[in-house]
């Protein structure tokens, strides 16, 4: 009996040791310092430059170490999240997962990045102060002033708000069905040049497919305001094909001096098929008449294989479209991938190269093209490396900011500042960062009385720049 008991004990001990030896160890990760450097290099170009999008985060696919690892390694393509499998090793990805897990446990109060709006702010050529006009917003995507001074604000979550001259917020009813997910939602807003006589206002939004709610695309509707209700709604454009992806919708609106409406549609995340082919609407700048019909002189109007509204193509995700107040020419700013954001002067029928040529690389650090130029493809007026994530765009008009007149202002989502671009003719001669640390700048708009208004997101507010 003693021999049997001893044998049993030895067997159990051997099995226990074997179990301990065979038990998988925690996957190896790089140091927290190296992980932070990777985070800065690979994550902040999309998730903003101050880590705040990972704090108090709502996780779609789980927030455990392994779930975060899986999302980074394999990507979530329909959500705009690329795979990093080709660019990073597993131990690097686990290091990122550990770093992100620590960030997500922080309080939003720990990421105090917003600079004070008080006092005088200095640019290279003038001083100004900042006044908060509207607060309590979320993601104010579109801004437009009504003739009486009321401000229409498009919130990306699908609400249109009238901020009255008396300081009241009133919600506008009568909007269409809107897919408010990912980068989609209620987007830009623009008044007809003859709004005072015809009452038409135009807005862009992500429009769902009637039969399959997973599908959506960029659409434009015009309508009139009756009190706080939209009436006479007409959808005058909807991009095709619709897709399940949640990013790269575009879509900024701008009327030119001749009354044509220009607008941008992003590539919807399908860079290999959409931007370089004229049989679809994505990855393009479009031009239409105010009623949605197609101008007779559009560049591809007689091409039976092309979409007749296309004005230029080879674009990734332009989120700024505006007209030079003197020349009347259309300018855009455009999100590149990791690096390679662009400022473009739009020419009729031209190919702007995406993704055949680019100054950027994949988010995972790999390359998708070795070419930055090619015959038959346009060069940007300027480009930004690293990506500033330009969003919203306007030319400075009027006489209230004489040292900035005809300069371009665009927002930086990534680095939380207002970007000023000084032109001489069609060339960039100077650039400057304004209001560094102010927050994610979503839009910039000029008021009818000549002041600059800046839309900040999360927390959403509208700022007014007052020259000194």
TrEMBL record:
The keyword Heme applies. It comes from the Bacteria. Keywords: Heme, Iron, Metal-binding. The keyword Ubl conjugation does not apply. Pfam families: Cytochrome_CBB3 (PF13442), GSDH (PF07995). Residues 30-104 form the Cytochrome c domain. PANTHER family: ALDOSE SUGAR DEHYDROGENASE YLII, HEDGEHOG-INTERACTING PROTEIN. This is PQQ-dependent sugar dehydrogenase. It comes from Carboxylicivirga linearis. The lineage of its organism: Bacteria, Pseudomonadati, Bacteroidota, Bacteroidia, Marinilabiliales.
